[in-house]
Amino acid sequence: MRIGTGFDVHGIAADRKLILGGVEIPCGWGLAGHSDADVPVHALMDAILGAAALGDIGKHFPDTDPEYEGISSLKLLERVTALADAEGYALGNADITVICQRPRLADYIEEMRRNIASSIGVPTDRISVKATTTEKLGFTGRGEGIAAEAVCLLVEKNINDYKML
Ligand SMILES: Nc1ccn([C@@H]2O[C@H](COP(=O)(O)O)[C@@H](O)[C@H]2O)c(=O)n1
Ligand SMILES: C[C@@]1(CO)OP(=O)(O)OP(=O)(O)OC[C@H]1O
């Protein structure tokens, strides 16, 4: 088994859609980025790549490459899953925290979990998504951006039928 962590931040952009965990959240603004700027999915991809010691998303999907302009991060997550698979690993579980003052995410969490699980090809109960504010402190508290962190466990594929504790 191998553990990985990921962290990402994107700044607010007035003229963009807000996509988190593959869910379009209606709030009148979005996040700046080369891709769809899906910050929890970016944190998760870096956690998976980190667990497999395969670098980070900027290495695999450079933000100078037009192929990735506006791309759904769930598509990139499928590719990261394939990279881990090629190394002999499957996702055991992942736990993601989205750090944002607003909008309130509680109503969208289950759909995010389903989207992420579907992209990876695992049951939804292996994916946890949580949200927290920073009590109006710092850049997330001032609404200047959204951050996300993720932790994941990769398991060797040949023991992927092990029972989760
Ligand atoms: N953007 C957010 C932030 C938080 N939540 C939910 O509210 C709970 C309390 O947040 P605190 O920052 O005061 O800990 C949190 O546990 C989430 O359930 C949310 O839905 N959207
Ligand atoms: C996801 C990529 C894809 O080009 O672009 P961004 O949406 O800008 O996101 P970032 O977190 O800066 O990571 C870099 C890139 O991998």
UniProtKB/TrEMBL annotation:
A divalent metal cation binds at D8, H10, H42. Belongs to the IspF family. This is 2-C-methyl-D-erythritol 2,4-cyclodiphosphate synthase. 4-CDP-2-C-methyl-D-erythritol 2-phosphate binds at residues 8-10, 34-35, 56-58, 61-65, 132-135, 139, 142. One of its GO terms (biological process) is isopentenyl diphosphate biosynthetic process, methylerythritol 4-phosphate pathway. One of its GO terms (molecular function) is metal ion binding. CDD domains: MECDP_synthase. Gene3D superfamilies: 2-C-methyl-D-erythritol 2,4-cyclodiphosphate synthase (3.30.1330.50).
